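Quick question: what would this complex look like in 3D?
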Amino acid sequence: MKKIEYTTSCSKDRLSEIRTFVAGQLEQLHLSEVEKNQIILAVDEACANAIIHGNNCDDSKSLKLRLEIGNNNLKVEISDVGNFRPHEMNWTSREAISDSVRNHRRGGLGLPLIHRIMDKVQFYSKDKVNVCSLSKRLKKD
Amino acid sequence: MEIHQNKMSDGVLILSIAGDLDAGSSIEMDRVISEALKNKHYRLLIDCKMLNYISSAGLGVFISHKENVEEQDGSFVFYHMNEKVYNVFELLGLHNIFSIVSNEHDARKLLPYEKN
């Protein structure tokens, strides 16, 4: 099991660096380009939510990523001290997608994407830190 | 991300997107499309050949303008989309809502005729 941590600031300008970091860590897993992109997308969406909705793009605040990469499993934890608490929202992925498309809203698609890509999605708060925990079983070659 | 605009003599506007369309760059994408609609360009071809990545914020830009474009008898037609980007549309079922074809020739055939 490989464990890696990465800390950055709560700025949208950091999203590209986060994607590059995650892509680099996934190289060893020999995933297809589509599978790799899906995991990068799920992490990017979770980080964008924390940066924009949780921390109002305040780059003096930190965003921490923790990756655990095993042979068959990947776990990513994204933690911050902002105000975005999706676990307190009354939300289902199916409703969110159709609402966004029907009402021509540009928001509300990030969480449904995360749920479609990852096997387990959890949000919790502990000691004023918000954690988004994403897990996915990896296909064996 | 970079957006190259090519205004064709038949009134079609080709927007070629290069790089990553994410939560940061989607603001520029929105500005370019808003300006195109303000200038009455409703027949829009989106060349995705150099588009490497799209997130929900990028998708949201096209969703938010879709009704406006169609109310003016226009359309968005995407082409040259790579497998990774197409898969993101598929994950949300948006490949059934937007027109996505392989090349510019096929994309032009899906555009409505220009309004007189």
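Answer marked as accepted. The beta strands of chain A are 2-9, 62-69, 73-80, 120-126, 129-137.
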